[in-house]
Each structure stands twice: as C-alpha cells, then as structure tokens.
Amino acid sequence: MKRVLLVQPSLQPPGGSNGLAAWVLQALLPEYRVTVLSWQPVEVGSINRFFGTHLHRSDFDTIVVPRAWRLVPDVLPTPATLVKLSLLMRYTRKVSAGFDVLFGAYNETDFGRRGIQYINYPSYLRPRPVVDLRWYHQAKAPLAAYYVIADRVAGFSLARMRSNVTLVNSDWAGEHVRHLLGGQPRTLYPPVADPGPGRPWTERAPHFLAVGRISPEKEYERVMRILVRVRATTPGLRLTIVGTSDRHSAQYFASLQLLARSLGDWIQFRQDVSRDELRELMGAHRYGIHGMREEHFGMAPAEMARSGVIVWVPDGGGQMEIVGYEPALMYASEDDAAAKISAVLADPVAQARLGGALAARAARFSTDRFVREVREIVATFQG
User: Fold this and answer.
1) How many C-beta atoms lie closer than 10 Å to residue 287's C-beta?
2) CA distance 45 to 255
3) What is the model's pTM?
4) Long-range Cβ contacts of 115-118 (<8 Å, 24+ apart)
5) For residue 129, what pLDDT is reported?
6) pLDDT for res 268
C-alpha cells in the first residue's frame, strides 16, 4: 500500500482549506496509508462535526511540528501565517523520506521533491490583494524583511515548487496561478458536504443568512448596509450572521455588534454552531448573501446554494462560478446589490428560475465528486 504524507497547517474548523484537507484525508484513507503532518494536533471529533467527514483517529498516523519550532510564531501578535508555512515546508523535508506521495493542501509548497499542491490563492503573490491587507502590511520595509526571512526559513525553491502537480479551487484562481507561476493547473472544486434538501420553499423564512469566518475580509458591514437598502422595500427582512471569530478578529466582531445594534433589532449573530445547526439554518432560509470581494472560491455561498438558498455574491473571484455567472446574483456595488435583490424578492418566477439554476450546479461541488477526483489524481501521480 502506497504511503501518503498530507501536509496542512491545521485540519481543525473553521476554514475552507482546513475542510478541504479533511476531505482529502477522507478520500485517501480507504486506499492508502496516510500520515498527516500539521502545525496543530488533529482532533477528529470537531472536524467530523463541522466538515461532515467521518474520520477515525486510528485510521491514520500524525506528525506535529515540534513545539520548539512553534514556540515563537505561536506567540506573535499577528497570525504569522507565512512564517508558519515556511517552517512547515522545512520540516516536511526532514520527515518526508519513505513516503510515495506528498500532498500539500495549503497553497504553493516546496517539498524538496515533486508532489501535489492545492492552491486556494497563491501565497507568494506580492503585494497581497487589498482584501488581504491588515495593519501589519502597511510598513513596507518591515514587510519586505519579513518576506525575506520567511523565504530563507523555508529554503523555498521556485523551480521545485513549479515541478509539482498543481490543483486550484476555481478557474479564477487558476488564471492567477498561470499568470504568476506558469503551468497548467487543474481546477478541483472544494467539497461541500450534502446539507440535505431542507424545507420546502413555502415553509422557509423569507430572510437572509450570511455565513463564514468572522474576519474583516468577509465585509459583514457591507452586507448590513446592502440589506438596509433592501429593507426600504421589504421592511420585515431579517439577517442572521453565522460564523466564528478568534483573538485576531475580536475587535472586528465587536465593531459588527455595535453596528448591528445601531441599525435595529433585525440582525442577530450565531457563533460556533454545529454542523447540524448550520444545516438546519440553511434549510430553513430562502436567501443568502456574501460580502467578500474576490473570494477565492467561497465555501459558504456553495453550501448555501447546495441547501436550496438563493445566494448573492460580489462580481469577482471564484464565487462567480458557484452562481454560474448569473447576472441577477452578482453585484458590483452596494446599490447594485440592493437593486438586484429587491427585484428578485418581488418576482416569484425569477426566484424559481434562479433556485433551479443553482440546484443544477450543485453536483459540481459534491463530496462524492471530490473524493473520486482526489483518488484518481493520486493514483496517476508520477513522482
């Protein structure tokens, strides 16, 4: 039986790349001996509940980056994502002997030899897109020094990385990878666990969901402003924001709560909900909206679409592929979003058409399709 090393900083929820890695593991276990190399320990209970997998801890081996390697990055006041990835790459090369296939689920990876890498959005795209920028990106000289240090820590080789089989989460991401790195990446849409059919349309609440990590790039304040405009014609409309925050986004979450209170009592927050609770919420709502511009794929919109929710997304990023580039479901500005949403809410025929179109695309994002393709890619891989 071939041995596979799956390299991923964390499989723990939340996070689209973490969920994808969990499903890569799920896909490979029946046919390969898999070891997970991660920055954080693997706890399958929370993974199964959140991502819909059915992993058993005894079915795979694990390697955790030693505490001595993690000590400094884990206490920095910023996420230090690039440094952690650099250290993870370096440690991969220390422990990868004896494995037949190396599979990295978090962007460009230099394994020291040819492997398989899944790129959500290029880590080495510099400068970063506007939606990724935080306060610690503003000082140019320190940021440049940080990049140099991280690259030296990684011992990163562009040539070795380019030799990998490259997978991407959307055609949109693939174009960025081709432009930056060259080659011919293969689009492998992330897996969206089957949420079930949900309630019949007539029994669903005519209200909105916004789902995803509570983080500034998700722009929940933008979602609120859009729905304020929609409420001018649909005054009973309500919004439920479902997500998870951490210490890095605590201030942002507090600002959202303050804004929500200033707008009235029609916005509520649900934090740390279980997979069953999320499935129930999506199956009980008619409408969803996403605020992040140029989302690399958009697990939350895809989940809502698979649940029978009519979902609106910005007109940028891989999320446009989720809605099939449907003009009525993509918006360029807050005013554009409000106008398009209001028009659909007032038109039952348009709602039936859009709901049917989204349902027809759902199979592209199924876990069965993802598992089948991952197995085929690993089976045909030539190191």
Assistant:
1) 23
2) 32
3) 0.87
4) 115/164, 115/165, 115/383, 116/164, 116/165, 116/167, 116/377, 116/378, 116/381, 117/161, 117/164, 117/165, 117/166, 117/167, 118/17, 118/20, 118/24, 118/167, 118/168, 118/169, 118/188
5) 53
6) 97
Q: Write down all domains in the chain, each with its CATH number in brackets.
A: 3-191+366-379 (3.40.50.2000), 201-365 (3.40.50.2000)
Please choose, from the candidates 371, 377, 317, the residue with its C-alpha nearest in 3D space to the C-alpha of residue 300: 317
Kindly state the tokens that stand for 323: 């809605």
| Interatomic CA distance for residues 168 and 187, integer angstroms | 5
Distance (Å, whole) CA 204 – CA 195: 15
Asked if residue 51 lies in contact with residue 193, where contact means CB atoms within 8 angstroms, the answer is yes
In angstroms, rounded to a whole number, what is the distance separating the alpha carbons of residues 288 and 235? 17
List the one residue out of 176, 75, 188 whose CA is nearest residue 128.
176
pLDDT one-digit tens code per residue, 129-164:
555 544 444 555 666 776 777 777 778 898 999 999
Q: Which two tokens stand for residue 150?
A: 């991280």
pLDDT in tens, 164-181: 999 999 999 999 899 888
The residues, ordered by sequence, that sit 6+ positions from 33 with a Cβ below 8 Å of its Cβ are 1, 2, 3, 4, 60, 61
Residues 6+ apart with CB under 8 A from 272: 244
Which spans in the chain are helix H?
Answer: 16-28, 44-51, 67-75, 81-95, 140-154, 158-162, 171-181, 220-230, 250-263, 275-283, 299-306, 319-322, 334-345, 348-361, 367-379
